[in-house]
Amino acid sequence: MKKYKYQELRTSDSQLDTIPLSEYPRPQFKRDSYLSLNGEWEFTHNKKEELPLSYDKKIIVPYCVESSLSNIKEIYDSNEILFYKKEFVLPNGFNKGRIILHFDGVDCYARVFINKKEVFYHEGGYIPFEMDISPYIEEKNIIEVCVKDPLDGIECYGKQKDNRGGMWYTKVSGIWKSVWLESTSLTFVQDVRINTTLDSVSLKINSNAKQKKVTIYLDNNKKIIKELSKNEITISIPNPINWTPENPHLYYFDIEVEGDKVTSYFALRTLEIKNHNGYNIFHLNNKPYFFHGLLDQGYYPDGIYTPFSYYEYERDITRMKELGFNTLRKHIKIEPLYFYYLCDKIGMVVFQDMVNNSPYYFYRDTLRPTIISKKMNDKKFKVPSKNKEVFIRTMKETINLLYNSPCICLWTIFNESWGQFESKRINDILLTLDTSRFIDATSGWYDNGNSLNSKHIYFFKKFKIKYDGRPSYLSEFGGYEYSIKEHRYNLDKVFGYRHFKSSEDLQKGITELYEDNIIPLKDKGLSASIYTQVSDVEDETNGLLTYDRKVIKVNKEEMNRIAKKLTY
Question: What was the pLDDT predicted at 1?
Answer without folding.
Answer: 38
